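User: I'm putting together notes for a lab meeting next week and I want to include a structural view of one of the chains we've been expressing. I don't have a solved structure, so I'd like a prediction I can at least talk through. The sequence is below, exactly as it appears in our construct file.
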Amino acid sequence: MRSSIIIPVYNQTEQLLITLQALNKQSNKSFEVIVVDDGSDETVENFVDLSAFYFDISILRQNNKGRSAARNMGIKQAKFELIIFCDADRVPGKDFVKSHIDEHTEENLVVIGEVREIYVSNLEYAGDMFFKDPDFFIKKSKIPKYPKIVGNIFDAGVTESKMPWISTFSGNMSISKEMLSSIGDFSELFTNWGFEHFELGYRAFKSNLKFVKTSQAVNYHIAHSRDLSRLKEYFIQSIHIMEQLHPKDEIIRFFGDFMLGKVSLQEIEPSPEASWKEKIETPIFFQVDK
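Assistant: Thanks for the context. Below is the predicted structure for the 290-residue chain, given as structure tokens.
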């Protein structure tokens, strides 16, 4: 199976170059890479030597419309049936591509990889160490809080959760082009940093796609500072967009409370034998001042 790897990028050229170099070291070499420059201040193509990579690589550019529009542009350009999503600042381990491909034994799958995070003060040093010491990122990285929490809904890669879509990480996931065509691409209502990946995952869940997780498809997020007040603002905007897209689905509001730390996952995740109605009617959701 051949795959198309789609990487949106906005002003992260140094990180992108490390990610592309890591893709050059993949154990599976049957893929193309589509980089979509989402209106970076300096055109990414000017910094990337296309001849340095053994794989086919295309660099597209659009005005700054956000990650959803960038990924959608990449999907339209993709030559192969399996789509793998990776972000510009997420450096793939050597079996990243192989592990995603190996999991696609059925057509209706959403495969979630393992997201790890590494903190470095110098990008050039990180890039050098990634190739000098294969275990450097493994030793220095950790699983961030959110992926660790939602990882609990999986057991040996499979889940009976009624909310598997909360694990949809567009920086490390794969899905067939046919399945994307059936559920629709990323919603372009999300123009800032947001929950476009969760919303896509929610539609996949409602369309009865099966979610699986593989700890072998690892990529390493090069952590960067965030404006927490702005981040919370984007959280709230994203929840409003999801509620707009799914106005009858009350679980979206509860998901928003979970993301804002008002309720725990255990409080909104029903047991396999409980229906949504039975769980939603319990008052614990409204005890938010904890």
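A couple of points you could mention at the meeting. The radius of gyration is 19 Å. Strands lie at 3-9, 31-38, 56-62, 82-86, 90-92, 109-118, 172-176, 210-222.

User: Perfect, that's what I needed.
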